[in-house]
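Database export, one record per block. Field names are fixed; values are copied verbatim from the stored entry.
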Amino acid sequence: MDVSMANLKKSLAFFLVVLCGVGFLNCKPNKEPQADQDSISRAEHREADFMQKRAEYIEKNGHTIQQKNQLKQSSVLIKGSDGDVF
C-alpha cells in the first residue's frame, strides 16, 4: 500500500507541474499581441514619415533618384559605348 501511495503522490505532483506549465504557456501569448501592435504602429509611423519626405522631395525636385538613374541608363543605351548615337 505504501508503494501505491508513493506512486499516487508522484503522479499528482507530475500532474500539477504539467498543469502549471500549461497555464503559464497559455498566459504568455496574451501579452505578445500588444507588443506586436506597438511594433506595427511604429512601422506604420516610419512608413508615413518616409512617404511624406519622399513626397516633399518629389515636389521640390520634380523627380525621384530612381527616375534619374533610369534616365541615365537610357541615355547610355542610346549613346552606346563609343559615344555614337543610334
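Remark 1: Residues 27 and 57 are 47 Å apart (CA to CA).
Remark 2: The helical segments are 2-27, 32-61, 65-79.
End of record.
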